[in-house]
Specification:
The chain is mostly helical. The chain contains 7 helices and 2 strands; from the N terminus they run H-H-H-H-H-H-E-E-H.
Amino acid sequence: MYPKAEIMKTKVLALLALALPAFAQIGIKDVLARRWKISGDFTIAVASAMPAKTYNFRPNPEEMSFGQLMAHIALANLGACSRASGMPRPELPAKIAAWSKDTNKIDVERDTAIQVLTDSFSFCASAMNGMSSEKLGAMVGPEGRQMSAFETLWSYFTHTAHHRGQAEVYLRVKGIKPPDYVF
């Protein structure tokens, strides 16, 4: 006779075995792409909540302005999705290219920031849609800092969330309620 713990273990393993086909239908790439889409929509909503006249707001001199923060998110997305997928990074708009060379002195306007953010999330969606499971597992990045393509995408997904949270604080400091997060 089996002890109760052994019976429970057998039942759990049987349930997992039955559930595996369902998990296989929803691949990790699909989940990642769906979460990036939600993150992109929410990030663009946060970027759109700040009025154009206050896009150069920074809570203190050491921080990026709100517009620079949005450009930073977009450039990081473009780099990560290019590195993970192997697709060439799209050419930057002139104003963003200029800002990327001198991040301390050049401000980023609202329309420019929202456009580059939108473009970065579109590029990432295309990059992820074109990736195979094998590509997601491939090691990418510079020597000494390599990680899987999946880990690269996940790292920059969290990078976006980090800076978007920072942007929400900027909004609150200006008396603006950030958009509600949609799961």
